[in-house]
From TrEMBL:
Source organism of the structure: Nymphaea colorata (pocket water lily)
Protein name per UniProt: Amino acid permease/ SLC12A domain-containing protein
GO molecular function: amino acid transmembrane transporter activity
Subcellular localization, as worded in the UniProt entry: Membrane
Key words, A-Z: Membrane, Transmembrane, Transmembrane helix
Bilayer topology term: Multi-pass membrane protein
């Protein structure tokens, strides 16, 4: 319905503004000294790697539900792969920028 699409649009804009605020704030007030190289490849061991992998897994959990809406899209063989690939690229880029901004603000060991 139109109401749910409007709510979805408003929430998306809110999320993008929030991410933008974190990214701009991190690059403005962060310090390059916080990007010092930690001891070794995984300073928090295998647990840190698995904790990060679990977060990444749950971040991409909703992409399978996009394919169920294929019958409601115009030209799904073209639109669906383009939409999924585009959204993954945009979200990955934003999360990389946000991760860098947060790393500039807080040292890795805090």
């Amino acid at each position: 319905t139109k109401e749910s699409s409007m709510l979805n649009l408003v929430m998306t804009i809110f999320h993008l503004l929030f991410f933008g605020l974190i990214i701009v704030g991190g690059f403005y007030s962060g310090s390059v000294r916080n990007l010092t190289r930690p001891k070794g490849l995984a300073p928090f061991g295998a647990r840190g790697v698995f904790d990060g992998a679990a977060l990444v897994y749950f971040s991409y959990l909703g992409y399978d539900s996009v394919s169920t809406m294929a019958e409601e899209i115009k030209n799904p063989p073209l639109t669906l792969p383009l939409g999924i690939a585009g959204s993954v690229a945009i979200v990955s880029f934003l999360y990389c920028l946000m991760s860098l901004a947060l790393s500039l603000m807080v040292p890795y060991n805090e």
